[in-house]
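Structure first, sequence second, as always.
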C-alpha cells in the first residue's frame, strides 16, 4: 500500500500572502504533483494546520479544491485551525462522540488512527484530554494485534527545538502509557514542527515533514527569524510485507542538472 503525508499548509484566503508566499498556490502545486506522480496512492492525510488562522475563505478554498482531487484525503486539525469553522466547511468529516475530529480508517492489512490534538484556537500546545484518552484506549484495544499507524499534529515528545518543545502535546506521559497498551503500534506521523525529523520514542518510530508554506529553522540564531525558507516536502509512504519506506519529496525544488 502507498499513501501520502502532507502537513502544515497554513492556508490563507486565495490571493493573500503568508510570510511572502501564496499559500493556496503552493498547495495547488503540491496536489497537482501528487496526482502527477502518485495517483495510485490509497489515500492522503494532512496532519493539521490546514489553515493559518481558521479563515472561512481558506477552508472554502480547500473544500472546493478537494472536490476535483481524485485521492481520498483525511484532513486533521492543528493548533492554527478552528474546529467549528472547519466542520462548517467539511460537514461530512467523521467525529468521535465528543465532537473531536478524529477517526479510524481500517484496511485489510492495517488500522490508521487520525487524532485531534487541538486544544483551542488561542493556544499553540496540543491537548490529550480524558475524552480523547478514552477514545484512543478503546481504538487500540479494538485493534488487537493488527498493525496500527497513528497520525497527530502535535508530537508527544521534545525534538530539541526549545520553541517547539514548549508547545508539544500536553500530557506526554499519559499518552505514552496509552500507546504502550497497543499491541502493534508501528509508527507515529506528526506535523507541527515544520521540519523533517525522525524520532524513536517509546520504542516506536516517528516522523514529521516540513510544512507546505514555511519552515521553522533548526537553529533560529543562524537564520535570524522565527520562520525560514527551506524546501517544502510531502511524504510518500509505502508499506509492503514487513517493510515501511518513507520518501520526502521537495516538489517545488526539483530542477534537472544539465548533462546528467
Ligand atoms: Fe504549523
Amino acid at each position: 500500500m502507498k499513501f501520502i503525508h502532507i502537513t502544515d499548509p497554513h492556508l490563507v484566503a486565495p490571493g493573500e500572502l503568508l510570510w511572502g508566499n501564496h499559500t493556496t498556490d503552493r498547495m495547488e502545486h503540491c496536489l497537482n504533483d501528487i496526482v502527477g506522480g502518485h495517483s495510485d496512492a490509497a489515500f492522503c492525510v494532512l496532519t493539521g494546520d490546514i489553515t493559518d488562522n481558521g479563515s472561512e475563505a481558506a477552508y472554502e478554498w480547500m473544500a472546493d479544491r478537494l472536490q476535483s482531487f481524485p485521492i481520498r484525503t483525511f484532513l486533521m486539525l492543528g493548533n492554527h485551525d478552528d474546529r467549528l469553522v472547519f466542520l462548517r466547511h467539511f460537514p461530512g468529516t467523521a467525529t468521535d462522540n465528543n465532537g473531536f475530529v478524529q477517526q479510524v480508517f481500517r484496511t485489510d492489512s492495517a488500522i490508521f488512527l487520525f487524532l485531534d490534538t487541538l486544544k483551542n484556537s488561542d493556544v499553540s500546545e496540543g491537548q490529550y484530554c480524558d475524552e480523547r484518552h478514552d477514545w484512543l484506549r478503546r481504538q487500540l484495544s479494538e485493534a488487537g494485534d493488527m498493525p496500527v499507524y497513528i497520525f497527530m499534529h502535535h508530537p508527544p515528545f521534545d525534538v530539541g527545538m526549545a520553541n517547539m518543545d514548549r508547545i508539544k502535546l500536553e500530557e506526554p506521559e499519559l499518552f505514552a502509557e496509552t500507546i504502550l497498551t497497543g499491541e502493534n503500534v508501528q509508527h507515529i506521523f506528526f506535523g507541527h514542527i515544520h521540519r523533517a525529523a525522525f524520532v524513536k520514542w517509546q520504542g516506536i518510530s516517528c516522523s514529521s515533514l516540513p510544512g507546505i508554506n514555511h519552515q521553522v529553522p533548526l537553529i533560529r540564531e543562524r537564520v535570524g527569524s522565527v520562520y525560514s525558507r527551506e524546501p517544502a516536502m510531502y511524504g510518500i509512504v509505502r508499506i509492503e510485507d514487513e517493510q515501511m519506506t518513507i520518501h520526502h519529496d521537495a516538489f517545488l525544488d526539483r530542477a534537472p542538472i544539465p548533462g546528467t
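Margin note: The mean pLDDT is 97.
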